[in-house]
TrEMBL record:
Residues 273-315 are annotated as: Disordered. Residues 105-146 form the B box-type domain. Keywords: Coiled coil, Metal-binding, Zinc, Zinc-finger. It comes from the Eukaryota. InterPro entries: TRIM/RBCC, Znf_B-box, Znf_RING, Znf_RING/FYVE/PHD, Znf_RING_CS. It comes from Macaca nemestrina. Residues 31-72 form the RING-type domain. This is Tripartite motif containing 31. Residues 143-209 form a coiled coil.
Length: 315
């Protein structure tokens, strides 16, 4: 890429200038001592360039000769000469930067050097201009172009998006587990409701049978007692003479009638009802004992597995 200039040294073909191109140019005009843009650049015998002020202060303690801060070559003080070509180059680069700043006036600039931000310091999390990048504060830091740093962060965002997708998949698995739990819950409730209904029907069947047997067995005896009471009331109201008449069979009349015996069929049905009740009660007791023992074992295994998982998670 080239930059056409007028006689005044002001760049006129700015669109062809990229950030990298400007930075490369600026790297050539940095003083190795102050790490800033050369001010009144001078060249010594070994060919290295410095700010006039910086190299003068560097050789103040020596007489006649001093060592180059870069290559340690001994040079004479009186050989320091101004480099006008380099000074013109510095002016053109600064003018180029000023034009670039005008073209990007809305973009933030370095408050210290009034330069555009081109770099990003990962160590400090700050934007840097070219001068800041070459300063002692950031020279040893992990610094990259803003575009490269943005690409790295975009890569991290993609990784996070992939992790988010994985989390969403796992969340779907959690929802699936919840659905299964809810389904199993409803199934348990339904089965126990059915079992409760069966037991309720069996209870009602046994009770109705017992009630029926009770009414069938008690009715003849009730009729007998009613008849006996009525007879006694009748005799109690008789006149004494009639009550003592000889022809009345008093001894037989006052004998209690023998109760009507319970029919054999009724006794058999009562025995069957009792047997069925005993059978159901025995089976229910065995079922209850087995269910309780099995539940205790299952609860022990269930909670023990959770405790083991918690211990592994802590490790």
């Amino acid at each position: 890429e080239t930059v056409s200039t007028l006689d005044s040294g002001t760049p006129t073909d700015l669109p062809c200038c990229s950030v990298t191109f400007v930075n490369k140019l600026q790297e050539e005009v940095i003083c190795p001592i102050c790490l800033d843009i050369l001010q009144k650049p001078v060249t010594i015998d070994c060919g290295h360039n410095f700010c006039l002020k910086c190299i003068t202060q560097s050789g103040e303690t020596s007489y006649g000769f001093f060592k180059c801060p870069l290559c340690k070559t001994s040079v004479r003080k009186n050989t320091i000469r101004l480099n006008r070509l380099l000074a013109n180059l510095v002016e053109k680069i600064q003018a180029l930067q000023a034009s670039e700043v005008q073209s990007k006036r809305k973009e933030p600039t370095c408050p210290k050097h009034q330069e555009m931000f081109y770099y990003f310091c990962k160590d400090d999390g700050k934007f840097l201009c070219f001068v800041c990048r070459e300063s002692k504060d950031h020279k040893s830091h992990n610094v990259s172009l803003i575009e490269e740093a943005a690409q790295n962060y975009q890569g991290q965002i993609q990784v996070l998006q992939q992790k988010e997708e994985t989390v969403q998949v796992k969340a779907q698995g959690v929802h699936s587990v919840r659905d299964q739990v809810e389904h199993e819950k409803q199934r348990i409730l339904t089965e126990f409701e059915r079992l409760h209904q069966v037991l309720e029907e069996e209870k009602n069947s046994l009770l109705s049978r017992i009630y029926w047997l009770g009414s069938e067995g008690a009715e003849p005896q009730s009729n007998y007692l009613k008849k006996l009471i009525d007879s006694l009331k009748t005799k109690q109201n008789m006149p004494p003479r009639q009550l003592l008449e000889p022809h009345l069979p008093r001894s037989e009349e006052f004998q209690f009638l023998k109760p009507t015996p319970v029919p054999l069929e009724l006794e058999r049905k009562l025995s069957e009802a009792k047997s069925r009740h005993d059978s159901i009660t025995g089976r229910m007791k065995k079922f209850k004992d087995h269910l309780q023992a099995d539940r205790k074992k299952d609860e022990s295994r269930f909670f023990k597995s959770f405790n083991n998982n918690d211990m592994k998670g802590c490790k």
